[in-house]
Each structure stands twice: as C-alpha cells, then as structure tokens.
Predict the 3D structure of the following.
Amino acid sequence: MRVIISAGGTGGHIYPALAIINKIKEKDSSSEFLYIGTHNRMEKDIVPAAGFKYEPIEIYGFSKKDIKRDIKNIGLILKAEKKCLKIMKEFKPDVVIGVGGYVTYPVLRAAKKLKIKTFIHEQNSIPGKSNKVLSRSADLIGVSFEDSLKYFGKNAVLTGNPCGERAIDIAPTLKSKYGIDKKRKCVLIVQGSLGSNVMNNKMKSYLSSIKNEDYDVIYVTGKDYYDSFSSNKFSSNVHIVPFIDNMSALMKDIDIIVTRAGASVISEIMALGKVSILIPSPYVANNHQYYNAKSLDDNKAAIMILEKDFSGELLKEKISTLFKDKLLYNQISKNVKSMSVDNSSTLIYNLLKDLIKRWGINED
C-alpha cells in the first residue's frame, strides 16, 4: 500500500496519524509512506524523528483579523496545492489520508483532482473547519465519537481514535518510578502537552490542601512552567514533573486522571477505562474540548469542571467523592470503557484496504 498522509499543528492530529502509519506498517511491511505537513509546526520535527519521509508545505491558518495575511494565505494554499499535485504524480499513492489541521486542505484537494481515493479522520466530537469542507468530497470519513456521525454523510464510520488502541498495546509505566508506594492511590494531573499557566495558578490552592489526604498526586506543569512552579513548597505526597513521555503508559497505573479534554487523551482514557475529571480548555478552536468533555459527561463517563467554575476546593471535593464512592467510581470506569473502540487503528487499516480494493487498485 502506498500512502500519503497529512496532519498538523497539534499532537492531537499528529499522533493519531502516526498510529495509523504504524498499524499499516505492522500489517503490511512493504507499504510506503509520505507525510505532508507544515514547514514550521511540531510535525516537522516529530515525523522525521519517527523515521518517515516528510514533505513540508508553507501554509497558515486564517486569522479573521489580519486581512493582508489571509489574502497572502490564499495564494500559499494554491501554491501548496500545486506542489501536492507534483508530489502525488511522482509518488503515485493508492490513498491519501487527512487526520486534521489546516495543512490537510491543499493535500486532499490535490488528491481529489487526481481522482485518488481519500480518507479523513476526525478526532474531536465536533469537526474542525478543514474536515467540514473536505468531508464533502472525501470517499470515507472516520470519527472518534458516535456523536460526530450526525455532522457527516452516509460515508462516515465510527472508528474511534487510533491513539486508544496504542494505549492498550503499550507496556505500563509504574507510579513507583516517581517514588510512590504501589499500595497508595494516585491522581495524575496534566493540563495538555504544553501545560497551562492559568491552570497552574489555579491548582496551587488544591495542591497546598492535600497534605493529610491518603493519596499521592503526580502534577505535570508543562516544560515552560516547571522552573517557576517547582519553587512552590508542597507536601511529600505531591510530585512535580515538567513532562511525561508516554503518558498513556503511566495512566495504566493511575486511579484518577485530571486533564484537559483533548481528543488524544480522551481516547486513551476511554480505551483504558480510566476515571477522569475533565477541565476543557476554553481557548481552542470551536470550543471543541468542551464538546469532547460533554460527550463523556452526558454519558456519566467522566466528571466535567469548566475552567471558569474551577477551584481547588471543588477539585478536592470531586476527587474525595470518587475515592469514597466505589459504586460511582466503578460505574464511570464501566461507562467510559463502553464508549471506546479498542481496535481503532486496525479498523482504519481494514477500511483503507477495502477502499483501495473496491476501486480496483492493485495495492501491491
């Protein structure tokens, strides 16, 4: 199978794309891949480091305020589409995959002009702008939440998020790595891959109040905030770290997760059946984290706290309730697990294989 894949801007798009690539590679070692991403965002470093061929294109998101920049960007989109046409004529992909972010727009448009079959994947509960537009011409659409099907046509399929299957497959990281007794309950608190200065400040009152609680907390500040935050003096049951590689591996040995509501972390929570308290970021496009969290909250599969309502006292109360009420704790775990598609990457691989065969293309 020859695959061009595009996703960019955030880990929430990039890591599902890499999970799809790795699953295809696992199933068909002869497959060849080309990743098209932006020239200046995180995928330009992550993808080559993962060992995959990378082609950058210059493109930016629309600002809504800077008209001159937006006019320039229209020209860059046309230029990027022209470059993608050239790339595809040379690479001759069997399928082109878009996994979110504005970079996918010229890539998928070029594919359709060349009549190459396309698949897009939506990680969030409500679709992003690029996927909304691209879905009109995509041959197949995969969604992570059942709630999302209503935004697309009959060619949309509930696939789950590929990061969920990856979370199930990886080996666990034990909390003892952070000096925590294996018999102690543990709460993991993380506010996105980059951290959040707003939430770090709000969390100080909570972390200062749990000296006498019978559980430990691993608190992830984000690399940019670690030096200033770690100067705070908390009790010995609070463990401050800047960043955790392979977060889902540690999640396997955690009792409660307090986190933002990005698509990838939610897919991991669902796949692992973890009890969580979700604090959606209000600063993201289309307020999509709120809808991600609401999807779980509505199904009694998580507890949602809005950032504007957050206080250290409220968080302490919610965590205490979850630890004391075993019936509630177990019900949330059961409910969130029931929302998961545990074989997402495998399902997507099979859909792609079928899409290629259906149109009479020899994948060999």
